[in-house]
Specification:
NUDIX_hydrolase_dom (chains A, B), Nudix hydrolase domain-containing protein (chains A, B), Nucleoside Triphosphate Pyrophosphohydrolase, homodimer
């Protein structure tokens, strides 16, 4: 073994919740560790005083705040979301100070004061059920969304493709010092993907907003089901930081909206906030080598793989797991 | 209703085998109509004289020809594949003349004398189990592979993207007169995707082989699980020809390897064999209109949708079902 990963290894590290069709008993052994998180349609008679219901038999955790009945139907939906958000917020704050469980005590330190939205999955259009503090979303296995930008250029002398790669700040809480996309971020409540990626590109990479808006291309979405594990790549010296011990087993189903930006050869991204330490302009070969050494943040690694697929670097001819890779980059959640 | 489909409608017409997670009882009602097709590892004691075993209880159909024991291990694998291929071939030929079932009697007319390969799904590398006559593969629900080429150009005056679209011959057995990719075809036994698409581009679109090989880019793979239905788009005047009555219910899980070719504005594909009647050079808007009117062959329609996703025509902003569409274009089979 040369310590290098295969592309499929990388995809599997990211999309690592088992598939039922591959191994039903493994899948079920995972499932039995989790409770479904639900919100009740109406306040239920057996609601606990604080609005939470735990049903151990059905493995369900239900959020059902009491509701004022003197409301119109349209007020009700918004009021329900507000109540749930407020109940979730106060519960998390209380737990972070009173609980002795490390997943709660660590919340105070990780608290970001940004919320992720939780939507209905079965209605069209989807409606907002509640908002949850960003750092707590993994506690509930909430489906989160993010945006990722691959910025690249064409070498004027050689016509060669060159890709901008970010080195994450060594002071970041997560994946410190690892490699990353030119810009990326989570989609907070009420943020649409396009505005999210424009903001990240301007803030993290100091790119001109006009340049970004004119050149930006939406080129797909990746989705995967990640379970946090203590050390996803212990074989590698450049060990990926995945979960702290208190987070092991947390579920992170995630959708990433993928954008591309072809830059002029004289436009250079520069670190704009404390997120990025440095930008590199790499050839496909340099990028591939760093990727297979495991130096990328997990969900940015699969963005590189998707870029390689779309640009004909990874092909049906040179990659034996081609179809499996392409399908697992797009898991239906 | 204006009679136009949505992009998701089109994807769902193609990927139309139900998902277990969406509706377990519908999924199971589909499953009970099918028998698993298996090949036995070793000749089994209860093998019928003709090498076929039908196990009604387990819903299994097993192909297990007797094997000469005086063979080395490496000879055995190849010999087994040869025996199974030969048994399958003679069974199909016999059935096509002696059976009164329309799915068999129609075989003689549809016989193409090209075979599709059937591989192991669990071993790495995959090995060939047997070959099956192309026109009979849907009888067994065999996973087939194909190649599709989108040829496009950039208008030198306006810099606008223009896409080459083929009109299928009105004399073709399947999807006669409908719109199609610039070149496409099924992957026969021992044909790799790249060679398959080069051959189709040269034969069907009369493109120069050198031009094709230099410009061709492998940009992904689509996969879907199709069940043949009598009229997938009865609401449309340009009704897609899907299954003949004798084929209703046939399973067609399929993987399509996707290629792109950017052509100079003075290179024009021309019908090269009897497959294509005419080529059109269309703007994105013209292509989109024809697509949503349901004028494309089903699995070429999703190639257009995938092209639109990769080229930023369909985006996270303008398409509410964006993530669902992208995931269902890449069903894990």
């Amino acid at each position: 073994m040369d310590g290098l990963k295969s592309y499929l290894d990388i995809v599997k590290e990211c999309d690592n919740f088992p598939y039922k069709t591959d191994n039903p008993s493994l899948y079920n052994s995972y499932l039995k560790n989790y409770y479904a998180f639900k919100v009740a349609r109406i306040p239920r008679p057996f609601t606990f005083p604080d609005g939470w219901v735990v049903d151990h038999e059905r493995q369900e955790l239900i959020l059902a705040p009491a509701l004022d009945d003197n409301l119109t139907e349209s007020e009700k939906a918004r009021e329900k979301a507000r109540r749930r958000t407020s109940l979730m917020d106060s519960t998390l704050k209380t737990m972070s100070t009173t609980s002795t469980h490390p997943e709660f005590t660590s919340l105070a330190r990780k608290w970001r004061d940004e919320t992720f939205p939780i939507y209905t999955t079965t209605t069209k259009p989807k409606t907002l059920l509640l908002e949850i503090e960003r750092s707590a979303s993994a506690l509930f296995g909430i489906l989160t969304s993010g945006v990722q930008l691959t910025a690249y250029t064409t070498d004027p002398a050689t016509n060669e493709l060159k890709i901008w790669v970010a080195r994450r700040s060594r002071r970041k809480q997560t994946y410190a010092g690892m490699l990353d996309s030119a810009a990326a971020g989570g989609l907070e409540t009420r943020m649409v993907p396009l505005e999210g990626i424009v903001r990240e590109a301007v803030e993290e990479a100091s790119l001109d907003e006009g340049v970004v808006r004119r050149g930006l291309k939406c080129v797909g979405a990746l989705s995967y089901y990640h379970v946090m594990s203590p050390s996803p790549s212990s074989s590698s010296p450049n060990k990926a930081r995945d979960a702290k011990l208190e987070e092991v087993g947390f579920l992170q189903p995630e959708t990433e909206y993928i954008y591309e930006l072809h830059l002029d050869s004289d436009t250079r991204p520069k670190p704009g906030d404390s997120e990025v330490e440095e930008f590199y302009l790499w050839s496909v070969e340099e990028l591939k080598a760093a990727l297979l050494r495991g130096e990328f943040k997990l969900n940015s690694a699969i963005v590189v793989i998707d870029f390689f697929v779309r640009h004909g670097v990874i092909t049906a001819e040179n990659e034996r797991d081609y179809v499996e890779i392409v399908c697992r980059l797009h898991r239906r959640l």
